[in-house]
Amino acid sequence: MIDWYNIDTVLLDMDGTLLDLYFDNYFWQEYLPARWGELHGVDTETAKRTLVPRFKSREGTLSWYCLDFWSRELNVDVLGLKSGVEDLIRMRPGAQDFLESLNRRGLRPVLVTNAHRDLVAMKLARTGIGRYFGHVITSHQYGVPKEDVEFWSKLNEDVDFLPERTVLIDDNLTVLRAARSYGIAHLLSIAQPDSSVSGRDTEEFIAIQDFMDVM
Fold first, then answer.
1. What b/e sequence results for 58-80 when a residue is b if at least 16 CB atoms lie within 10 Å of its CB, and e otherwise?
2. Which of 48, 66, 80, 110 is the most exposed place for a label (fewest CB within 10 A)?
3. One CATH from 3.40.50.1000, 2.40.50.140, 3.30.43.10, 3.90.1170.50 for 4-20+91-214
4. Hey, which residues does 10 pair with through a beta bridge?
5. What would the pLDDT profile of 146-186 be if each residue is shown by its tens digit?
């Protein structure tokens, strides 16, 4: 699937790629609406009907990924609420073995995520995967999400990679398309980002179920 002899740089997404997306989906779809509903005296289903359109209106933008933005918008401590369910943070199958394999080969991977820096810190502390990365980059550093081609240009200024010798693994198809537009040659998606949801169609991108597929 990947000719590792022709790869210098490995760009890896965090949520839905290295980490199970169940934590994030459960938080935004169930836990946060329930807690927000309690604060506003409404049931969870009513809270969902109120919040889901607000979430979707920001999807794909930097605001969608920003805990500070949603804390202000909803008048709740989103990071504090996330810490209440952080025991649900877990790695996807084979992810740690894959990271160790890359390090043994002398390929220092780069973490590229849309997640807010405070959430990144929580997840790295919880999983211990930070030690495998030479760079940890969040789109908040650049002011544009990974869905924007400009992100990849700014990333290259920091990391200095050759797009034709770079692989990106990401569960977000829009992100993969932006990276392809920039020129990144090797692109893989994830068949099942959320372990509680069955596999999905990754359209034009080859998908991996387990990181053993590419080791």
1. eebebebbbbebbbeebeeebbe
2. 80
3. 3.40.50.1000
4. 167
5. 999 999 999 999 999 999 999 999 999 999 999 999 999 99
